[in-house]
Write a structure and sequence with these properties.
about 150 residues; mainly beta; Immunoglobulin-like; 6-stranded mixed sheet
Amino acid sequence: HLPALCSTTAFVFFSSTAPPVSGSVVRGSVGQNVTVPCLYSVKMTQGVTSVCWGRGSCPASKCDQTIIWTDGWKVTEQYNRRYTLKGNLLMGDVSLTIVNAEEADSGTYCCRVEVPGWFNDQRNNREVVIEKAKISTASPHTYTSEQTS
């Protein structure tokens, strides 16, 4: 009975260190680089692993509308140069950076970390909101000097 208890504890520990983050919102401005976080524990997955990023919520397997893949060591597929992985892949930082963000980049993104075994994949849904930069509507100050006669 003890080994079963240990494996259950390990699974719970993994779940608590890498919970699904559905509903997390990342905000950015048009023209900026926006980083959408996604991390996994290399130790808990027995080494680096492959990860896909896609548009839309995470499906039952893989990613829909895939935008970038990594085998855990390097980027293996990149469908648009504006989507990059700038984190330390070997440490499990597979955060997505959207370069020169546009309003059209708003929406749901899926980061799927492939974990060996049935139904073990870590699925992270992130909501991204890209807005136009707010422009100040304050009128400029005008300075006048008082003339003396």
